[in-house]
């Protein structure tokens, strides 16, 4: 196994991590921004007002994107397992 193969697998893993975390992080960012804007307009500074909608939105994002996230993880795992013989020099 050479250095390029290790770097390629690491890069693919990082790209997969970014793809899988993007829906949740973007949802939390958008909802957090909207709630912060609402709080600054109304001057209501309640901690639960920012936490509860964000938690609900992230849960909805996980429900909506969960199947895709699992499918991407499984496809990546299958691709890595399929590469094992060539990485070990057997094929």
Write the layout of secondary structure elements.
Blueprint: H1 3-42, H2 47-87
Give me some keywords for this one.
91 residues; mainly alpha; 89% helix
Description:
There is one protein chain. 89% of the residues lie in helices and 0% in strands. The protein is built from 2 helices and no strands. Helix 1 (3-42) runs antiparallel to helix 2 (47-87). The longest helix has 41 residues, at 47-87.
- Tally of DSSP helical segments: 2
Q: Which percent band covers the strand fraction?
A: under 5%
Mean pLDDT: 91
Q: What oligomeric assembly is this protein in? A: single chain
Largest sheet: none
Molecular shape: elongated
What is the domain total for the residues?
1
Number of strands: 0
Question: Helix and strand succession?
Answer: HH
Low-pLDDT runs of 5+ residues are none
Helix content: over 70%
Radius of gyration: 20 Å
The secondary-structure class comes to mainly alpha
Query: How many angstroms does the end-to-end distance come to?
Result: 12 Å
Short account of what is shown:
The chain is mainly alpha-helical and 91 residues long. Helices cover 89% and strands 0% of the residues. α1 runs antiparallel to α2.
């Amino acid at each position: 196994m050479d250095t390029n193969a290790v770097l390629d697998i690491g890069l693919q893993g990082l790209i997969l991590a970014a793809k899988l975390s993007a829906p949740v992080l973007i949802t939390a960012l958008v909802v957090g921004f909207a709630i912060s804007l609402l709080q600054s307009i109304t001057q209501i500074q309640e901690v639960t007002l920012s936490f509860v909608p964000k938690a609900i939105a992230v849960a909805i994002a996980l429900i909506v994107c969960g199947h895709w996230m699992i499918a991407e993880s499984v496809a990546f795992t299958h691709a890595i397992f399929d590469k094992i013989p060539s990485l070990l020099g057997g094929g």
